[in-house]
Amino acid sequence: MMIDIRHTSPADLETVMSIYDHAKIMMRKSGNMKQWSDNYPSQDVILRDIDTGNSYVIESDRNVIGVFTFAKGEEPNYAVIDGQWPDNRPYGTIHRLAAAPGHKGIADIALHFCCRTGINIRIDTHADNVPMLGWIASRGFSYCGIIYVEDGSPRKAFHLENPKIEMIDSNKMRYLDLLLIGDEQQDMIERYIDLCQLYIAFEADEPVACIAACEVSQGLVEIKNLAVRADRRKRGIGRRMLKHVESQYPAHAIQLGTGETPSTLEFYKRCGYTFSHRIPGFFTENYRQPIIEEGITLKDMLYLRKPPLNEIPTPHH
């Protein structure tokens, strides 16, 4: 299934409005009786979003399966809050997020897209929108307080800090808890960590992800460890960590080793990595305890590779 995100066009209006109509039905079924009432969002609101370039549709095989608004810059309704925003750094706001009937994961796709901007993310929702509140909490947003929308009704407001990535020059093993997420055996980590450049992603000074990479030969960099804390996943942080390393070594091919875990292989495939070679028995010979992921006992190490960034054709539009 190919997923694409593009700006909404006026030609999408009928489809988009039908998605919002479906979303309202689902809200009422979940007990959310007040949000998106009185013909909201109207066609005029959506046309305004389209005109400002803030409306996006999510497509699968050229069929629109979701819609959302993402506006960078100050949100007027957020100027006054019964509570406190954590900082004044640049941010973007997600509004009017909805999925077509029968489609799941739309919120995660939209959030991943927004996080790629590198700025903080804010969102608000009605207190009765239990499904959305659950999703917001599970994706690492922090509750900040109550804001009021145009009609004066209250909304719960949340803030998500997009991580800052820093290189760690010394005392790298102080991040052992993170490193052990990506490599379960400490003595294996100790073999390579001092040879690697270690990058840590921080949110509010709290480490949430790591990536360790070292140059193994001329023109080739190997990623030895990539890990994202469980409560920070599904936000595109792992992809950002990969891209950070790739940007540090634009003239180098990047390779990494992994087990035959289906979701992990699919993730790296989406990031542009392809199969290079296999080392039979790597996990069974080098790890004292069996490593089991998604019901699979890892045995062989699969090496994946991506060409240097300066050899990848630049798309034109």
Question: What does this molecule look like?
Answer:
The chain has helices spanning 13-29, 43-52, 106-115, 130-138, 176-182, 186-192, 237-248, 262-270, 282-286, and strands spanning 3-7, 55-60, 63-72, 82-83, 91-99, 120-125, 142-148, 154-160, 164-168, 197-203, 206-217, 220-228, 253-258, 274-279, 292-293, 296-297, 301-306. By secondary structure, it is an alpha+beta fold. The protein folds into two domains: 3-160, Aminopeptidase, CATH 3.40.630.30; 164-311, Aminopeptidase, CATH 3.40.630. The protein has an eight-stranded mixed beta sheet with strand order 1-2-3-5-6-8-7-4. It has a seven-stranded mixed beta sheet with strand order 9-10-11-12-13-17-14, with helices on both faces. The chain is elongated, with a radius of gyration of 22 Å.
SSE diagram, text form:
Blueprint: E1 3-7, H1 13-29, H2 43-52, E2 55-60, E3 63-72, E4 82-83, E5 91-99, H3 106-115, E6 120-125, H4 130-138, E7 142-148, E8 154-160, E9 164-168, H5 176-182, H6 186-192, E10 197-203, E11 206-217, E12 220-228, H7 237-248, E13 253-258, H8 262-270, E14 274-279, H9 282-286, E15 292-293, E16 296-297, E17 301-306
Parallel strand pairs: 5-6, 12-13
Antiparallel strand pairs: 1-2, 2-3, 3-5, 4-7, 6-8, 7-8, 9-10, 10-11, 11-12, 13-17, 14-17, 15-16
Describe the structure concisely.
The protein is α+β, with helices and mostly antiparallel strands and 317 residues long. It contains 9 helices and 17 strands. It has helices spanning 13-29, 43-52, 106-115, 130-138, 176-182, 186-192, 237-248, 262-270, 282-286, and strands spanning 3-7, 55-60, 63-72, 82-83, 91-99, 120-125, 142-148, 154-160, 164-168, 197-203, 206-217, 220-228, 253-258, 274-279, 292-293, 296-297, 301-306.
